[in-house]
Amino acid sequence: MGLTPNVIWIIVAVFGGSFLLMIPIAISQQKRKKKSQNYVEQNQDKAILHIYAHSPVIDGEKIKKLEYQRGTDLEYIIALSPGTHTIEAIYQASEPSLGKNVNYKTPVIKSDIEFEAGGEYTLAMYFYSPEQRKSYYKGDVGEDVYSEELDNKNRYLGASANAYIICYKES
Predict the structure, then answer these.
(1) Cα dist from 158 to 97, 98, 103, 162, 166, whole Å
(2) Which tens digits make up the pLDDT trace of 81-110?
């Protein structure tokens, strides 16, 4: 029992259709990357923050009311004036566990973080401490300018693992 010509055409159509659908997605990613690079270049005199979180609020303003870009990983990219800023956000991350991904989500977490002009920063939730990351990458990492270990019982919903909110200044 071999493949009939109709089955072959269906297989070709499915693969061809999938390939055609990937073209606009790739073009969209390239446009987003170029837009975010231009945004960073235009704001070199400010601190650039890449924040991987839901519904961030910066200094009492919702992100949607501020000037920002979305990065290639769908993070928010925002240019901040130098100084201390208060950031409130809901962080979410996934971790592989026994053949499936476990999703973790925090309530709103408030952080006061100092930013320097010309610096590029990443703020996100991680399943390892800054010290563990430095050890793993043999010291070849950005500087952790803010770190908060999440309390599993009170703040980190559904977690059995350690989690941290960390802001790295890229080197």
Answers:
(1) 13, 16, 9, 11, 20
(2) 999 999 999 998 887 777 788 778 888 999
